[in-house]
Amino acid sequence: MEKRISIPNKQETIEAYVDLQHQTHGIIIMHPHSLMGGNMDNPVVQKAQQIFARKGITTLRFNFRGVGNSTGCFGEGIGEQDDLIAVMDYLNSQGRNRLDLAGYSFGSWVMAHAVQKINDTHGIIMISPPVAFMDFSSIQKIPGLKHVITGSQDEFAPPNLIQSQLPHWQPDAQLHIIDGADHFFFRAFTNT
Prior knowledge:
By secondary structure, the protein is an alpha/beta fold.
């Protein structure tokens, strides 16, 4: 069962929901773009949380700075990377030493950049990384990338553009294309 918590991050406080399961495996789930209404209550983020919680994995979803009850303001993706690192530190302090990451849209962009600075992730899932909307050119490799999920009709994360990035990011990563789904996965949850 999820519990609302606050996580300190330098001068900021991060609002989060955590579901601490018994195993030491945890996953952090990141939301879409803050300036476009993205938050941890996004349906895709909630669906991901439910899927992993049912598997007995500790889940943590959080609001980036300036969203909901998280303090601060939009950090151009840089401050949001600091938010992710603070959340990872929190889960490590709770005995969750095997951490996976899942980022949806902007959350996947933040995650892809943050993992260039850290080494303690096991598995990474990108959900609709917005390669047609945001600059991923500085990302040469994404250690731990296992799965990339997008919709066949996703205009921000077109399958063909993602397919062209996978050899650079992680050649062994699997691309999953949800037929008929757009960037927001309307009417696609029955296929996930």
